[in-house]
Structures are given as structure tokens and as C-alpha cells.
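Encode chain A's predicted structure.
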Amino acid sequence: MEAHRLLGFADVASRADSSVDHPISFRFTLDEKPGETIGAKTLEEARELLFRPMGHEVVATGKWVTKFVVKPGIGTDCFVTKHEGQTYLWVTAPFTVLYGGKVTFLSGADTEHDLLAFDFNTVSSERTPDTVVYRRKLK
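Encoded structure for chain A:
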């Protein structure tokens, strides 16, 4: 995909990193009101134990379903947070306490060209194979 080249990678294969296994696709839906699907108690626990210590504010919750190349994927609750002007999408996952990263929506000339850049590298500002671009797939 052209987006990989724009990020500085020759192609998908040049991004290969055996320690990184990000979803090849995902789908998420957001609640109209934060906590609707997970409940007020779970939302408050997530705020207190996970997000406030990181300096993040939870602005939305919902459901997230992923698809991986090798593994079947996961379906779980998701959280959208804000931190220092950036938007993040997170899930609690079986293989880690918290999985996710910074999201940036790029509006295309039409909806078929919309992109979502997802930076799973939350440790540094360097570009790594952890920066992945997804294209919207219309139903």
C-alpha cells in the first residue's frame, strides 16, 4: 500500500519484526455514552488503575474486534483516551494488561481513501514498525 511507502517503508515485508504482531485489520464501535457496554464500575476501575496513572482521560468506550495473520484475533472492550492533545485507542488483552496506541484519522478525498494511522509505539517518538496504517473498508 502507498501508505507504507509514505511512512518510509518499501513495503509490508520491509516492516517485518518478529517481535511485533499487530492486527491486520480491526473493527470498533463506540458507545453513545462512556461506560455503556462495560458498566460504571469497570469504567471507574480502568480510569483509576490504568489511565489516570498514565495521565490519560477516558473520552469514550466501546467494543474492539481484531484479526491477526496467524492468531484468530480478540474481541474485547475498548477505551478512547486523550493525552496532551493526542487521541489513543486501547484494549485490555489476554497477552498484556493494556494494548493500543496513538490514532490519527486522515480524511481522504472520499471515504474509500480515509486512513487511520495507528502508532502502537507508546514508549518513544521514533518511527518503528509499530506505526501501522489501516484503510477504511466500507460494508
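The longest strand covers residues 57-67.
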